[in-house]
Amino acid sequence: MDVKLSQCFIAVDDHDKALAFYRDVLGLEVRNDVGFEGMRWVTVGSPLQPDVEIVLEPPAANPDFSPADRQAMAELLAKGVLRGVIFSTEDCDALFSRVEASGAEVLQEPMNQPYGVRDCAFRDPAGNLLRFTERPRS
Hints:
The protein is of the alpha/beta class. Helix content is 25%, strand content 36%. The longest helix is centred in the middle third of the chain and has 13 residues, at 67-79. The chain is globular. The mean pLDDT is 92.
């Protein structure tokens, strides 16, 4: 079978703050910015992966959600428990320095993991967990 990842979704509560982080700090390019029925979806991606997109979406984008569902999603997002994404990088330490300088919440400084990668972790402006891994050079 020929199955590849095309898009993943990250809930954000403030698209402008999310853009400042994903575009300006991480260097992802903006591929789409769409408003519909009072909501906004922004698609970003790495220039190194033109066929993979990250959609920054409202936390309760489903029109069938009840007001209670919307409130529950907002509370889960505020706790930082909705989604997580793992990015790869060629230089974990340099990336860590750049992201830390942006003021992002540090969860883990760069460290070598027993399973063979060096990684670090942050929260994005909405509280989502982001890990950055560097594979060992061969």
